[in-house]
Amino acid sequence: MSGRREFMMDKEKTFIGEDGLIYCSVCKEPKQAWLPENNLLGVRIRYRQCACERDANAMKKAEQEEKERRVQIARNRRICFDEVAMKNCTFANAEEMTPVIDKAKKYVDNWDKMKQKSKGLLFWGPLGTGKSYVATCIANALLERNVTVKMTNFNTIVDTMFRAENKAEYMNKLSCCSLLIIDELGLERSSEYALGIIFDVIDHRYRSGKPLITTTNLPLKEIKGEPNIDKRRIYDRILEQCTPILVDGKNKREKTVKENMSYFKKLFGDKE
Prior knowledge:
alpha/beta; two-stranded antiparallel sheet
């Protein structure tokens, strides 16, 4: 065995030491080791890895683990988002570092505590101020850490539950992910059936002991003072789990519309 190992070694990168063992010319560590004369194998020399080989193997292992990690992250991202473009909503791509973005980053930085204590967030504020973007930034940041996240909205949940053959299985999928993000609270249908499903989802999440993040255009005062009893019990359950954070400022959608209009005016040669 030792002879075959020695034959496989690159002779140009080895030398024979004073002790008769083969050494690596690069790291100067032995590639062989003496064995006791009375060993069971009946041989005197065994092969050993030098520092170069250990480093190369460690690097190869790390590369393989990183490859597997990226594959898992890509799979989790496909499960998380219904739209491919949402993968581009990241903290790095944010136009500016706002107080809300800073709070969202701190939430991610303290994710282990947030998960342990089941602490969620409720991003609320006027239309078009970037609530969904901030929530998606959190999702992407946690996905990069190989955390399982699902981002959806109540209308999608209601439609899926209506079509699902196994409703309990779908409900469990929403509960098993480490973080559930429900976008655009308040835009869902208000039928008794829909509100019943929505409460079940929120309540199931609450009982799972895992964090929930929601976004809404509804004013916080309206959420807290909702007169409809079915909606109120949903909102009360959400407020138990999610700390409200106001997202205000300029309507980013209006800004995008103006930029698009300006671009095409210049393209078409129209006067401002």
